[in-house]
Write a structure and sequence with these properties.
Length: 238
């Protein structure tokens, strides 16, 4: 009888968990990406975390990972002296970052600041409602604050994508940024929107800045660094 009751309880608990997940937006349900290369990169972040030496973390998707490509010279000059680490993984959406944070990223760190920029793949891959993506960003910020209460978080508005201002993806990005700007509390969480840093006066995004209207060129990374360096140093007490 006890075994039967236990089986019934386990079935109920599993069904309830699945039902709760089904009621949540995908952007909020931690989800791994079972690609061996991506898992290896994730595990490298865990090793960096365990060492506890990095003071500045850039967390995000391929645009953040691009500091190792088009942005590598700017990174070496601007961020390496601040003991920075790059926790960007191309293709990540908010749910993937949430999974990473549940599975070792930041465990052991005592960082001063994280620069977070995530959400463009929720729009580009799935065209999630802005509120869902913003909820995912909020959940990431809350998880970071729980894991590293001494650390400040600089949330960046999702960078402009698509050439024209009226493009649906650009409109959705603007909606996301309006929502996540409200995460700033002026004490532990801060927000910057760099849209105007990258856009032309008429609102277009040029190939000189983003050759595919999404990923940044070396010039784009220079603009990014120049735009946030004063705030980063302020928040790190430099």
């Amino acid at each position: 009888m006890k075994r039967l009751l236990l089986s019934i309880f386990c079935f109920w608990a599993t069904a309830t968990s699945h039902a709760q997940d089904a009621a949540l937006p995908k952007a909020l349900i931690p989800d791994p990406r079972p690609d061996a290369g991506l898992i290896k990169r994730h595990e490298s972040f865990n090793e960096i975390s365990k060492k506890g030496e990095a003071q500045l973390i850039f967390l995000g998707d391929s645009i953040t990972q691009g500091w190792e490509g088009a942005g590598k010279e700017v990174w070496a000059k601007t961020w390496e002296p601040l003991k920075a680490a790059n926790f960007g993984i191309g293709g990540d959406r908010t749910e993937h970052v949430l999974w990473r944070l549940q599975n070792g990223n930041y465990d052991g760190l005592k960082a001063k600041l994280t620069v977070l920029m995530i959400g463009t793949n929720n729009t580009g891959h799935r065209m999630d409602p802005a509120a869902d993506t913003a909820a995912g960003v909020k959940a990431i910020v809350e998880k970071l604050r729980t894991k590293q209460p001494q650390m400040k978080v600089l949330v960046l508005g999702v960078f402009p994508r698509a050439e024209k201002a009226e493009d649906p993806q650009r409109v959705r990005t603007n909606e996301i940024n309006q929502l996540i700007s409200k995460l700033a509390d002026g004490q532990n969480v801060f927000y910057l929107d760099l849209s105007q840093t990258f856009l032309q006066p008429d609102g277009t995004l040029s190939k000189d800045i983003a050759p595919d209207f999404l990923h940044l060129s070396p010039k784009g990374y220079e603009l990014w660094a120049h735009a946030i360096e004063p705030k980063v140093k302020e928040l790190m007490g430099k």
